[in-house]
């Protein structure tokens, strides 16, 4: 069987199977390391369990990998030059990460677990853009974080880290 036609079955946490081309599956360093070289040569169907990734998230991961092979994402400059992801990466990628926070964070976890560097870079940059230029109170509001400092503790932390705000 031609390597182009070889399929890999990725199995999500909830048991849903996704049949993807070998080159899409190999974007994940985890999947690449789990593949048996002999099975690849024989052209037999490989099944890779991904117990940490829900099917909804795996579907997005596969969508990213397929698009990335067709149109590689531009390198993300650090520090971010803008809070707008459309200024940082191509439009498709900016639209791709325009998600609810919960799904975005699950994509970060999946990209990290599956070791897909471009997806991890994109999702983390998106989170960074949500923080860029915001005050601590605005960040708490954005991420629904409860301030558990007493006013005295907060004043002490601000005093100790005054140099940060001057930069």
């Amino acid at each position: 069987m031609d390597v182009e036609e070889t399929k890999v079955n990725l199995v999500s946490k909830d048991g849903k199977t996704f049949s993807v081309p070998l080159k899409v599956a190999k974007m994940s360093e985890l999947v690449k390391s789990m593949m048996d070289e002999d099975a690849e040569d024989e052209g037999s169907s490989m099944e890779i369990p991904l117990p940490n990734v829900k099917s909804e998230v795996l579907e997005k991961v596969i969508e990213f990998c397929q698009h990335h092979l067709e149109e590689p994402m531009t390198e993300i400059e650090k520090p971010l030059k803008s809070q707008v992801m459309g200024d940082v990466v191509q439009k498709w990628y900016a639209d791709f990460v325009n998600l609810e926070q919960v799904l975005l964070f699950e994509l970060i976890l999946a990209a990290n677990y599956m070791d897909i560097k471009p997806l991890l870079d994109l999702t983390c940059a998106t989170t960074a853009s949500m923080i860029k230029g915001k005050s601590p109170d605005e960040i708490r509001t954005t991420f629904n974080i409860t301030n558990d400092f007493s006013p005295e503790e907060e004043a002490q932390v601000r005093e100790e880290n005054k140099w940060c705000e001057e930069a």
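The first strand starts at residue 7 and ends at 11. The chain has a mean pLDDT of 89.
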